[in-house]
Amino acid sequence: MADNPAPVLGAASEKGPKRPLNADAYAHHVHNGRLAVAVVDGTGSTPEVVEFAQLAAATAVRVAARRTPVWGVMAASDLNSDADGDGDGDGDPDGAIAVARAIPGHQRWWTAWAGDCAIYRVITDGAVQRVTHPLTHGTLLRTQGASEEEARRYDHALTHTIGRGPIDGVWALRIVSPLLVLASDGLVLPESTMAEILTEHANDPETCAHELLKAGRSGDDTTVVVAPHPDTLERG
């Protein structure tokens, strides 16, 4: 059996001050030395949504570590889909998700997402770059030429969700980065500020995650995971 040492990660999660429950969740899993991480932002604040978010995150990482993040998102979607498989779920809990899996060699990652959870990477000069784009009606309106004021009103209306993965598909990218930051949409922070925090606490992912949350909390549930690539740790 392959050795699966505990990964070096940092994570922080906080309930929004006006929310009854924290409907965000995060998880990680290592299988045969392959690390997978996920963040889920449940839609709503009921106990059912909280349970769904936690189960979706745990399911996604277990499947992603064995296969790919796309398969992880699709496995999470099975928790929502109704018997007809139309993706509507008949009122079942739903939400947004971001999943990443480290690929051995050259700091490579596979990533996948649905909704507006974010994944950020560090590029060669230390700058931070968001590699996902929000799958929301606000984003769609901007591409259609709507005003920023109008688009902003729809930034929290998702066009893709976990439950609709079988219908709308799953966005995916292969990227290279020494570490990733995965976050729910409650994190609102300029990428330049994020880069400063990551640089200041480069050797302490846990502190990074808490400092990012403190600097970027927006009043919504907020979750941040800082995941160094295992290649980086082995070299360091």
From TrEMBL:
List the InterPro entries: PPM-type-like_dom_sf (IPR036457), PPM-type_phosphatase-like_dom (IPR001932)
PPM-type phosphatase domain span: 1-227
**In terms of domain of life, where is this protein from?**
Bacteria
Could you tell me which SMART domains the record lists for this protein?
PP2Cc
The protein's name in its UniProt record: Serine/threonine protein phosphatase PrpC
